[in-house]
Specification:
The complex is a heterotetramer, with two copies of chain A and two copies of chain B. Chain A contains 13 helices and nine strands. By secondary structure, chain A is an alpha/beta fold. In chain A, helix 3 (about 40-65) crosses helix 4, helix 3 (about 40-65) runs antiparallel to helix 5 (about 100-110) and helix 6 (about 110-120) packs across helix 13. Mean pLDDT of chain A is about 90; it is low at about 1-35 and about 350-355. By secondary structure, chain B is an alpha/beta fold. Chain B folds into two domains: about 10-195, Rossmann fold, CATH 3.40.50; about 210-345, Rossmann fold. A seven-stranded mixed beta sheet of chain B has the order 3-2-4-5-7-6-12, with helices on both faces. Classes of the chains: A alpha/beta, B alpha/beta. Bound molecules: thiamine diphosphate (2 copies) and magnesium ion (2 copies).
Chain lengths: ~350, ~350, ~350, ~350
């Protein structure tokens, strides 16, 4: 939260850290970002990433303890992406994401208590517990899911941006998805619509190299994803998704263009998930060595190395406390009464929270 | 409904318009009334709509609000959902129900689900219109009746205007609904003419309508089959059989109370639906009558539905595949004689 | 069916395997038997299948025949149709029914339609497998039961193996069908164990099965709900109510004769289906019983189905939304007492 | 037919006429083909195009007379595309097309009588009359529709090619579709699958500039369609779709690569329909002048100009006779008995015609 709050002051500087390249001239290798000196700003980014990490580590434990159920997809290893991008997204801009959504919700400023309660299926959860891990929605921060049909969120983002355009608002909509989603027809149709109508959408591809067990090169004939964006005339950036400053810089540049009427932009963040696809899988499809190599570029460690004069341990214990409070909050929460099961299948006669803004 | 009441139904002259014009007037009126309303779909603009519904609207409202889309049913229906979430009141036209399968994921998994799954946070005030049905020799891939798929989905409201007044009026009411509404316009109705009270607009969408009162058997139907049922009822009347014809109007939720009330009087029911019989809407209506009118029924509930084949192109085969007034009347007769035989 | 007969059911030892293993064995056997058979779908290869069904098959058969696909349901199902047209015998796995909506256009408009529309020239010998159902706290978008959509479509055969033997054997028979077959595997069954005659393979797919004989009421069900019905029947038996449980096995075509024969004896029927009630498969079964067993029924046909909401994540709400043995037993009791009350 | 039969002799020469360019270097302006001297071969192409033209003109009359019903999409103006491409397709190769399929059926060698009978809904028609204009299927020439869901045929073509590959056959599958179809998700998914698996498919885009009333530039953000193919790593050619020699040459080159294991190829033929989208429409969406300009490049007139020593009038009257015979054949045809309505919903116990080959 603090990262986003302090953003306006820093976003100009962040531009300098961008390692994006315009459409067609993307060099994926050139992903080392220029570093700035540590700052309160970077500390906030670190804190956000750590909040995500610790939150999810705790969720994994709670999953083993069967207090969290269903499908849970951890974001561990990818924290820099949501953190860097959402740091640059204004409070009234819309955000759309996938089932791998804890990081986005937390970086967006959804209270951790409510996210944890949701994971527990409590009525105090952000969706009254009905959505669970995969479906975090939050009207106050305009988080439109938490969509678990791969590719399903992209058309929603196009429509949200269309509404903004038709209502004369100059703000961006940000849409996260995995590289695997880019094979779906929904990706193609959404990119074309957004580009054709020059809508203010920032498409953020979290390229973690795998869709479940399927490596990018076994799911897409063209693995240079920026070229895919080019097919719609959409400018594309590729950035180092393990380096939160690089992500933030690229997002800042792309968002500035989007807000400026430049039409949709495509940002590929090269990242990696350190854990299985969902809570457990065999992970037979990846090399141990590959995982280890990526872990050397742990986004938290990377950033920590740039925070010389910051008391990381203090942050660590603050975050640990926040996570424990969230668990306690969820524990103390309540089951939604079964009598409410059929509420909100359709709107209630007087909508208020549910009214579109 | 307040605006609705301000425009009371007055005994004004009733201009005769086509169903197509009525839909168009409904759209035009909605767009004049509310800046947030816009129409989006394939060829709704320059072409004037696949069935000519939106002819002329581009000139009046411009390209932003009469928005031609690429061939991307999943994409633009999803964009409609997003625009609804974002504060607009989109009317999305899917050219025909046949192509709507490409958007069904978005309709079911997003439009119909977001409100509940988000714990009441995000409603989707979206109206989707599409042409449905066969009877025009368009062959299998252009002659489906898939209303039953949509009527299965909680979170949707599904309407089937069968009259000129409903064609115009249901759109108004649908646009006032905070949740997604799917409207099926039967392709064979666009050229149908009917009187339209100039001063009555929004129509209620909660109740089925007794289109023709009767005593001996209840014909339950909707959309393009209504005319066939009325025709059959006319033929039956000549033989002294008085059929009550019910136009369901809303396919989800179903106003089964009106149906039950009728069957309680007639003791016999025939469900008429242009869709395939198995697992179609007719099954649900028949099942509910069986459940709720069990002790009122003098004969098993009958069904007249499409023969279970992809609709073929030649006229004689298409006619044989789809319900007709003759088949309906014959089934009604069997229902009466059969049950009497059984009771005799 | 000749090959089927050559391997007669012998009273061999019955190894106990899981449903998952049974499906896998069915696939493995088919691939060994017939070079034209291959398995294609998301993560069927290196990952071993979303539900682990195909674990180990890549090693045995290689990447060409255990073919991982990109996330492109419409594309690879359509490719399966094309490959079937081209002389292969594809087994296409759609990870779950929820994602199958993205392929429904291809399934309805191509797979199910080409044979008829081409005047008998092109049949599509394709098998599509998918996991279905809820009960595992996967929330709305991963817990659908949409069998009724598929059972509506002429040209398809739709199967729902509810036992380990059917999980293995139906695949064989499906692959011998010259037309498209959709197989629904309920997600909650994969870990279920059962005895599997080592030497009996292909099973008939035309007939429903009386899973438990009874006298007082017929429970008609399929797939994941079979176990619930058997459990309910057990509980009812303790009270002296003998429920006959019918596993439909084939959802299209429906072997309604077996159902009617049962209802003619029990005079009461309860249809149990995990899908939403309105316009679901349960409606069709109930409607047919009402039509054909009208004079045999002592009570209206009952239905136990899902509450019409998107399935929520929390266990207590999910359980409340879906059928349970308790709800089934209670409905059966009501059916018996209610009808007696009504007849008294 | 004769064109296809004499093809082997001429396809080498046809290569010389190709005006294709490899992926990325497409110059749409450079579409004037080098001409060969008139030859029996060109005469055959002319005859095929004329057969299509006259057949459809007659259909239009019969439509007005209400003897043909339903949706009918004329190919008039586009004859060079099907004619040029199918001249190069071997008899056992599969062809997939759309609802605008008369040209493909005739050029493929489906007997005109059977096509005309199909248009009339006669049991003597190629699909027993059940498909009508939009659904011409023909097993003997491996014509797999006649698919009226836009984009719906592309995955079928991918699968047909996959079957060939798995069965060890080295032949191509050819798939026709309009430029409007390229906005559909099915296009995206099919291109990726074909490229990823390097399947032998020739994708032929009939770019007639409009999808019903929607001009290309109002339906796709990137109107250089070859760039779309590049997004999948698929080589693309653009050719002058009004010049049958140019089309044939480009198809010959592309097909040779496809058959050679080069993976899928994409061929864009720039063409134009002279008539309304389906039988009648307002045509308000096109300029009169634009239509007139394209009519100057009528593919029949263009080719006729190269056939100095050929008796075109003789061909004309032969074709006229064939068309009238087809009408007579259709007229003399029969309605399928209603009792057969439910045949072939599923296969009959003993399949023979229906058995996949
Ligand atoms: C339409 C659809 N198909 C399949 C699935 C099952 N599934 C869930 S996540 C996933 C992989 C997605 O990969 P990617 O888009 O790269 O995102 P990541 O999980 O790597 O973040 C699959 C196949 C789904 N949820 N939706
Ligand atoms: C999925 C789908 N959406 C819409 C339609 C209605 N429709 C039929 S043809 C057509 C235009 C197709 O244009 P294009 O692909 O360029 O082919 P052309 O007709 O120009 O040959 C449309 C919108 C359809 N048949 N299928
Ligand atoms: Mg991924
Ligand atoms: Mg076109």
């Amino acid at each position: 939260m603090s990262a986003r709050q302090s953003r306006r002051a820093s976003s100009g500087a962040a531009n300098g850290a961008a390692n994006g390249a315009a459409n067609g001239a993307v060099d994926p290798a050139a992903s080392g970002a220029a570093h700035e000196a540590s700052s309160p700003d970077l500390t906030a980014l670190y804190r956000t990433m750590l909040r995500i990490r610790r939150f999810e580590e705790r969720c994994a434990e709670l999953y083993s303890a069967e207090r969290i159920r269903g499908f849970v997809h951890l974001y561990i290893g990818e924290e820099a992406v949501a953190t860097g991008v959402l740091d640059q997204v204004l409070p009234d801009e819309a955000v759309v994401t996938t089932y791998r959504d804890h990081g986005h919700a937390l970086a967006r400023g959804v209270p951790m208590n409510e996210v944890m309660a949701e994971m527990h299926g409590r009525v105090e959860g952000v969706c009254r517990g009905r959505g669970g891990s995969m479906h975090l929605f939050h009207a106050p921060t305009r988080l439109y899911g938490g969509n678990a049909i791969v590719g399903g969120g992209l058309p929603l983002a196009v429509g949200l941006a269309l509404a903004d355009r038709m209502l004369g608002r100059t703000r961006a909509t940000v849409c996260f998805f995995g590289e695997g989603a880019m094979a779906e027809g929904a990706f193609h149709e959404s990119m074309n619509l957004a580009a054709l109508w020059r809508l203010p959408v920032l498409f953020v591809c979290e390229n973690n190299g795998y869709a479940m067990g399927t490596a990018l090169e076994r799911s897409q004939s063209e693995t240079n994803l920026a070229l895919k964006a080019a097919a719609y005339g959409i400018p594309a950036w590729t950035c180092d998704g393990m380096d939160v400053e690089a992500v933030r810089g690229a997002a800042a540049r792309a968002l500035a263009l989007v807000r400026d009427g430049g039409g949709p932009m495509f940002l590929e963040a090269r990242t990696y998930r350190f854990r299985a696809h969902s809570m457990y899988d065999s992970d037979r499809y990846r090399d141990r060595a590959e995982i280890d190599r990526w872990k050397l570029r742990d986004p938290l460690v990377l950033l920590a190395g740039r925070l010389d004069d910051v008391d990381l341990e203090a942050i660590d214990s603050e975050v640990a406390r926040e996570v424990e409070e969230a668990v306690a909050f969820a524990d103390a929460g309540h089951d939604e009464p079964v009598s409410e099961l059929t509420r909100y299948v359709t709107s209630e006669p007087i909508t208020s929270a549910g009214a579109p803004r | 409904m307040s605006r609705q009441q301000t425009r009371a139904r007055v005994a004004a002259e009733q201009p005769v318009v086509t169903y197509r014009e009525a839909v168009r007037e409904g759209i035009r009126d909605a767009m004049r009334r509310d800046d947030r309303v816009f129409l989006m779909g394939e060829d709704v603009g320059r072409y004037g709509g696949g069935f000519g519904v939106s002819m002329g609207l581009l000139e009046e409202f411009g390209e932003e609000r009469i928005r031609d889309t690429p061939l991307s049913e999943g994409g633009f229906v999803g964009a409609g959902i997003g625009a609804a979430l974002g504060g607009m009141r989109p009317i999305v036209e899917i050219m025909t129900v046949n192509f709507s399968l490409l958007a069904l994921d978005q309709i079911l998994n997003s439009a119909a689900t977001l409100l509940h799954m988000s714990g009441g946070q995000f409603n989707v005030p979206l109206v989707i219109r599409m042409a449905t049905g066969g009877g025009r020799q368009l062959a299998a891939q252009h002659s489906r009746s898939l209303e039953g798929f949509y009527a299965h989905i909680p979170g949707l409201r599904v309407l089937a205007p069968a009259t000129v007044a409903d064609a115009r009026g249901m759109l108004w009411t649908a646009l006032e609904d905070p949740d997604p509404v799917v409207i099926f316009e039967h392709g064979s109705l666009y050229n149908m003419s009917g009187g339209l009270p100039a001063d009555s607009w929004a129509v209620g969408i909660d109740r089925a309508m007794v289109s023709r009162p009767g005593e001996h058997v209840t014909l339950v139907t909707h959309g393009g089959s209504l005319r066939l049922c009325l025709e059959a009822a006319e033929a039956l009347a000549a033989e002294g059989i008085l059929a009550e014809v019910i136009d369901l109007r809303s396919l989800r939720p179903l106003d089964d109370a009106t149906v039950f009330e009728s069957v309680a009087r007639t003791h016999r029911a025939l469900v008429v639906d242009e869709a395939w019989r198995t697992c179609g809407l007719s099954a649900e209506v028949a099942a509910r009558i069986g459940e709720e009118c069990f002790y009122d029924l003098d004969a098993p509930v009958g069904r007249v539905a499409a023969v279970e084949v992809p609709v073929p192109y030649p006229r004689h085969l298409e006619q044989a595949a789809l319900p007709s007034a003759e088949r309906i009347a014959a089934a009604a007769r069997r229902l009466l004689s059969g049950s009497e035989a059984a009771r005799a």
